[in-house]
TrEMBL record:
This is Phosphoglycolate phosphatase. GO terms for biological process: photorespiration. It catalyses: 2-phosphoglycolate + H2O = glycolate + phosphate. It comes from the Eukaryota. Mg(2+) binds at D33, D35, D254. The lineage of its organism: Eukaryota, Viridiplantae, Streptophyta, Embryophyta, Tracheophyta. Transmembrane segments: none annotated. Substrate binds at K229. It comes from Acorus calamus (Sweet flag).
Length: 308
């Protein structure tokens, strides 16, 4: 079912026996997004354990690359365990980790602080990397009063504001982050990711980090540095850690504008699964310009291709 939409677009097709066996021959590492690929909320997607087991038995490296910043790598490893999957922290690349690594690689001064709009995962990774940070859950119950003698004093030592998904976002957090970015000279504005929506539960799609990041863009009139997908920032770590050429990697994800674009930007093979936010009509929409190499309904489809 190969097709070419227009001159600028890539051809793409439903994954076939032949395609998968070719991938199995040429790919050394499979990179998986999590939400909508491995699980939906706290529910494992059908056939995932057997699929991962099969790939491991074929000697393939398995890596999880997630934009969801709510958890640290350690917390993700625990979530995998609870779902019955044995995954080590070294196999997990989360955008919370990427935010900490961005500051580390850019020699963020140790005497400066980081303000966080987001969840515990970001704070945990920042602390692990040796940074002083605050905000996040501890500011979730703070409120402001719009009266003439009220003001919020912000810390002038804040040199970076990291924004990720925050289900407890409030006006205090938005105000504090805005003050730091607008008033502290050189203060960085870092977004873990800009996903529009995600499966925070298996019942429906919820507003993603793009919602919180968008609010700070609006109040500061600044654009963030994005460290999650589709930015290839995390790819540098993957390549260095696993010493595998990106051409020998296959990115498997459910989102076109993050997962598939990330894979393409890095030069990986790409496989879209329709078990998350993207439907076949969305992929086939003539306005969509991001096309994976292949698509299939869910990751466990590949089990059917084995040995053929
Ligand atoms: Mg996803």
């Amino acid at each position: 079912m190969a097709r070419v939409e227009n001159g600028a677009s890539k051809p793409y097709r439903a994954l076939s026996n032949g395609d998968f066996n070719e991938l199995l021959d040429s790919v050394e590492a499979f990179l998986f997004d999590c939400d909508g690929v491995i699980w939906k909320g706290d529910r494992l997607i059908d056939g995932v354990p057997r699929t991962l087991e099969m790939l491991r038995s074929k000697g393939k490296k398995i890596v999880f690359v997630t934009n969801n910043s709510m958890k640290s790598r350690k917390q993700y490893a625990s979530k995998f365990r609870k779902l019955g999957l044995e995954v080590s922290e070294e196999e997990i690349f989360s955008s919370s980790f990427a935010a900490a690594m961005y500051l580390k690689l850019n020699s963020f001064p140790r005497e400066k602080k980081v303000y966080v709009i987001g969840e515990e995962g970001i704070l945990e990774e920042l602390k692990l990397a040796g940074f002083t940070c605050f905000g996040g859950p501890e500011d979730s119950n703070k409120s402001i009063q719009l009266k003439s003698d009220f003001m919020v004093k912000h810390d002038e030592n804040v040199g970076a504001v990291v924004v990720g998904i925050d289900p407890h976002i409030n006006y205090y957090k938005l105000h504090y982050g805005t003050l730091c970015i607008r008033e502290n000279p050189g203060c960085l504005f870092i977004a873990t990711n800009c996903d529009a929506v995600g499966h925070m539960t298996d019942t429906q799609e919820w507003p993603g980090a793009g919602c919180m990041v968008g609010a700070i863009c609006g109040s500061t009139q600044k654009e963030p540095v994005v460290v999650g997908k589709p930015s290839t920032f995390m790819m540098d770590f993957l390549v260095e850690r696993f010493q595998i050429d990106t051409m020998k990697m296959c990115m498997v994800g459910d989102r076109l504008d993050t997962d598939i674009l990330f894979g393409q930007n890095a030069g990986c093979n790409t496989l879209l699964v329709l078990s998350g936010v993207t439907t076949l009509p969305m992929l086939e929409d003539s306005l969509n310009t991001i096309h994976p190499d292949y698509y299939t309904s869910k990751v466990s489809d590949i089990l059917n291709f084995l040995g053929d």
